[in-house]
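Why does residue order matter? Because the sequence determines the fold. Keep that principle in mind as you read this record.
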Amino acid sequence: MQTSAPSSDVPASAVPEASAPDLAALLDFARTTAADPETLAGLTLHPTERTWIRLEGPGGSEAWLIGWPPGSETGWHDHGGSSGAFVTARGELSELSLVMPLPSAGWRSLELEEGMDRQRSLTAGRGRAFGPHHVHQVVNPSQTDHAVSVHAYYPPLPRLRRYARQGDVLSVAVIETQEDW
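Structure:
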């Protein structure tokens, strides 16, 4: 079979660009990957520390397979303006989040109104997608069992803001960039 190189007569603007994945595509990728025993088998679990493997996500997204030891958690954080999705592959994760998006810049501390907290329990096979200003904390509530999850973000994470929370006051604690990971 013969193949030929693409014609140089075709203008570059006529070649379609890969489209950015939407929330449904990120969630579908996380759900499909979380159900893949071969991918899950590649993750080594540590007894006391989170472990992770970087995955190739859809449409140029950033993806991670994460192992959660009993009682581990992320702390309050956002994803630096990226949208994302995650699905629990094994065990159970609890997500604590705020019901409203926070401003993306220009503040160091906010007092949250009553009723801003939401909690979700995500058992194996369950997940969620979120927009670019989502602030949450993810916890493995089990004191005995590991959890495993798949996460996907688009655009790839430019930074991660970590927050300190004292009651209803949320303060920016540190801003991490890719060099910090």
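Residues 20-180 form a domain with the Jelly Rolls fold (CATH 2.60.120.10).
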